[in-house]
Amino acid sequence: MLPLLAFIPLLLFTAPVESEAATVAVQASPESASPPAVFLDCQSRRNCNRSQFQTEIEFATWVRDRSDADVHLIFTSQGLSGGGREYTLDFVGQGPLEGLTDELTFIEDGQDVQAEVMDGLARTLRLGLLRFALQSGMGENLDVEFLGDAAPEAGGDVESHALEEGEAGVYDPWNYWTFQVGLSGNADFRETRTSTRVNPRVNADRVTEDWKMNFHGRLDFRRESRDLADGRVVRDDRDDWRVTALVVRSVSNHFSVGIDADMRNSVARNQHARLQFNPAVEYNYFPYAEANRRQLIAHYSVGFEHSNYIEETMFGTLRETLPQHRLGVQYRAREQWGNAGLGIDANQYLHDADFYSLGIQGDVSYRIVRGLELNVSGSASIVNDNIHTPAGDISDEDILLGRQALPSSYRYQTSLGLSYRWGSSFANVVNTRFPRSVR
């Protein structure tokens, strides 16, 4: 618990986000012009944050398929000799913008905090797309401010006027719905152990300014056997499944309502089937448009949980439906000094107030001075809602295989790290010899 308290003063003195970088103001487009359609091709696993780019760069239409795009934006990165990273943004025009290409790079020196890196990437992306926006006829709606010596060292925020849905005249035959189906699996055969696993899944999403909908389903078929030293064979066969549904309505820049439903099975929780249905309300102290930089969210839900148990519980129950509610409060900030987060959650069954759980978790990545960074994280919880525990004894075999767990009234973990980097500030040399993937 003590590591969590160390960064609370940092949260209390977080300064508001102020715009200091080049400003791009976007107004309503004339009927003859439309924002360029951009496909973001993330070929780097580092800092390709689609949601932040789409939030902060509003004079472009973001599409999910390359064939629908006017600009194919290829986002790649590679490590540098000084511990930093070089990001390369290739802008390739398509369709009416074919033949128009550009390439910009952004250098992370290895001592920047994530907020500086993301601001710099967003600013680089914004500058690269200006040329394509001009060619798309958006010139009358763009204004560029030159800051001269007042420009920030890395990145910066952008002030812009958001285009209302449908204002740009973009026609979407799918009405913002996207669908995905997938199938994955693996097999591992050894002389004393065999393991196979198959995972089909399906997903449907619709996200607009007013609505957020997500429907997800998956199956997990697992077959595993192990030979023990005494000649016995231990099998671990599981058929797990889960179906979730989320429907959220935006009420204002700070307030939203929704319904969260979850249906699954869980051998570890002694549940042949469990259904949770929770209407909820959420309030964000900061506007949702700033969610990439800071959040202070209070989330409250109330509903019910229905369970069909595999074995009779310690309360002599095989099936029950219980009312429950949950309160969660979370603060997250990404500022120039680093990142911080603190969350508190409380769950309780309403039929008996004695069945509840409380938890707190937090993390801080704080740059003390240039090159010196402190990382702290921790969590702690009190668990007093083990109503699903079976009445019979739990076998050692089930415990070792993770199929069942003995009830625990508490859980906590913590970590602490300190790092310091010094030396040359020049980190522009790229050497791709002996990559880690082949060593």
Describe this structure in words.
The protein is mainly beta and 439 residues long. Helix content is 10%, strand content 47%. Among the domains are: 20-150, 3-Layer(aba) Sandwich (Rossmann fold); 251-420, Porin, CATH 2.40.160. The protein contains five helices and 17 strands. The chain has a twelve-stranded antiparallel β-sheet. Strands 2-1-3-4-5 form a five-stranded mixed β-sheet, with helices on one face. The model is unreliable at 1-30 and 154-168 (pLDDT under 50).
CATH topology of the domain at 251-420: Porin
CATH class of the domain at 251-420: Mainly Beta
CATH architecture of the domain at 251-420: Beta Barrel
Radius of gyration: 26 Å
Number of strands: 17
Share of helical residues: 10-25%
Poorly predicted residue ranges: 1-30, 154-168
Q: Give the CA-CA distance, first to last residue.
A: 40 Å
**H/E series:** HHEHEEEEHEEEEEEEEEEEHE
Strand order of the largest sheet: 6-7-8-9-10-11-12-13-14-15-16-17
- Compute the average pLDDT: 82
Main β-sheet description: 12 strands, antiparallel
Please identify the structural class as seen in this structure.
mainly beta
* Count of alpha/pi helices: 5
Shape: globular
Strand content: over 45%
